[in-house]
Amino acid sequence: MAAMKIFACMALCLLAGPLPAAQWYKHDDTVMGTAVHMEIWAETELRSRSLFQKVLAELHRIDVLMSHYKPQSELSGVNRLAGSQAVKVNPELFTVVKHALHMSVVTHGAFDIIYASVGRFYDYRLKRKPNADTIERLLPAIDYHHVVLNEQDHSVRFSRPDVYIDLGGIAKGYAVDRAIALLQAAGVHHAYVSAGGDSRILGDKQGRPWLVGIQHPRDRKKLAASLPLRDAAISTSGDYERFFDENDVRYHHIIDPRTGISANRVRSVTVIGKACFTTDALSTGLFVLGVEKGMALAESLPDIEAVFIDRFGRLYASSGFVNKTPR
Ligand code: AMP
Ligand code: MG
Prior knowledge:
The chain is α+β, with helices and mostly antiparallel strands. It has a domain at 71-158: ApbE-like superfamily (T-fold). The chain is built from 9 helices and 17 strands. The chain has helices spanning 2-16, 45-66, 74-81, 91-106, 116-119, 132-138, 171-185, 276-300, 319-323; strands spanning 23-31, 34-42, 87-88, 147-150, 155-158, 191-195, 198-202, 210-215, 223-229, 232-238, 243-246, 249-252, 255-256, 261-262, 266-273, 305-310, 315-317. The strands form 5 sheets. Strands 1-2-6-7-10-15-16-17 form an 8-stranded antiparallel β-sheet. The chain binds adenosine monophosphate (AMP) and magnesium ion. Adenosine monophosphate binds at residues 111-113, 115, 119, 166, 168-169, 197, 237, 241, 253-255, 257, 280, 283-284, 288.
């Protein structure tokens, strides 16, 4: 009898095979109109799939809240009404707008979510841009001070009727941070999540840092540099993401709030820090500021490193790369 039990157990074990060892699982998708890539270290494929689904649901949820393209989003409600009345919003949207305004202060207005008061008249796919009259008329609307927040009732109001918010320079970073928080809460210790140019790394890659590439701004197939990173956030803003060229001028998606025209001092800026919420906004803001002012600002901020590629293709790295191996 005992022999039969042992035999049955052996047969079962053979059928089930050895216990699966943890391994890396990958998933690619499109959310928020952008490519999402995830890699997680998980015990089984089933668990990895369930985690990927949870993260995707979270990214969709944030998109529905914060997309200015979706007429039914909470942000679209703000854009429609806040010029004439205070609009109460979800605490999460309130937090993102509040952090965006803080990043405007940090970047001396170079990062400004109401850049879109003019910026919404660009359409890169249709090669459309606002004419000089439109820019002149709406430029005074671009000043983050026109967004008035009320902490008591979580409401947003605009001090001018022609103000328009676009969170495209910060919402992806926020979403990537949320994805990492969700994975951490589920017990994941090693992961990589990216949405467009915003990535976060949780832990490392089997005891070694991840090597994260900075895209060459003029050759999609090439990298301009590779950075060894662990437990870090990294965001790149580039003039090659959404653009059209006309008469030797590149019209792209990062707008200088002072001119209402695409910023042209650099081709790309990469920011490394602790959270994507900040690196996302900062990469956009430093892009507008250019190498000189942008690098001075990056050097003044704690836990921030930056890599600039200027309009001649020259690369500049902040002093943290020279003095120590970044994180
Ligand atoms: P990123 O790729 O993170 O640099 O974000 C670029 C996106 O940020 C654009 O597609 C716009 O949605 C938005 N944006 C453009 N210019 C600005 C600006 N000066 N301040 C804040 N957001 C901006
Ligand atoms: Mg950014």
